[in-house]
Design brief:
This protein is mainly α and 217 residues long. Helices cover 74% and strands 0% of the residues. Belongs to the PPR family. P subfamily.
Length: 217
């Protein structure tokens, strides 16, 4: 670029890297990344997030480099790594990557919490999932419908109908609208318990809720 009279800059590297990530040109992206890193011209967490989504197999290495360069590891990047490892390497690898990232002082947000709650539930580690959910709420993340949905489903599968209904009420209290997955889990749970009155009540509530959403759209 210098040869052609184009001064290298952070924004230039970012604008070059992102399109190549989009078309999954791994080799070119890697060359640009290494060149930008050498010149100290890569600072945008969004660029790293796009690279993380492409380079799932080396994402922890990328995060280590971000920490070294004092670039903030965002919650979206953290969550993307957890989900990426879960899909490509398995759930236990996802757990290991979470512990590694925590050791690097990466801060968890609602995306990471939702991802890890899902991983724990899929592994059958329900106490861990519940503990992480409580931690999420204590930190003020009250509107993560994905996390609520996962925990409601967990309660339903374990016959904890009172806890599931309490959580539904908690969602509404905090202004977090239940989604179709929450209602499906509750309907399935009460159906298996033969709580037909509750099934009817939830079904009507769900129809009203989603009719309202359709009108708002």
């Amino acid at each position: 670029m210098v040869k052609w009279g184009i001064p290298p800059s952070h924004s230039l590297y970012a604008s070059l890297i992102c399109p190549f990530v989009g078309i999954r040109e791994v080799e070119i992206t890697g060359d640009l990344y290494r060149e930008a890193k050498k010149k100290g011209l890569l600072r945008d967490p969004d660029v790293f997030l796009k690279m993380v989504l492409m380079y799932v197999e080396v994402t922890v290495d990328i995060v280590e480099e971000m920490v070294e360069m004092k670039i903030k590891v965002t919650d979206c990047i953290f969550g993307a790594i957890i989900n990426g490892y879960a899909k490509t390497r398995g759930l236990f690898s996802s757990l290991k990557s979470y512990e590694k990232l925590k050791s690097l002082k990466c801060e968890t947000g609602q995306v990471t919490y939702a991802s890890m709650i899902n991983v724990y539930c899929r592994l059958g580690l329900y106490p861990n999932a519940e503990s992480m959910f409580v931690e999420m709420l204590e930190r003020g993340f009250h509107k993560c419908v994905v996390a609520y949905s996962t925990v409601v489903s967990m309660y339903g599968k374990n016959g904890r109908d009172r806890d599931a209904m309490w959580l539904l009420a908690k969602m509404k209290e905090k202004g977090c609208e239940p989604n179709v997955w929450v209602y499906n889990s509750l309907l399935d749970m009460h159906g298996r318990l033969l709580n037909l009155r509750q099934v009817g009540k939830l079904w009507k509530e769900m129809k009203v809720q989603f009719a309202k959403c359709t009108l708002e759209i």
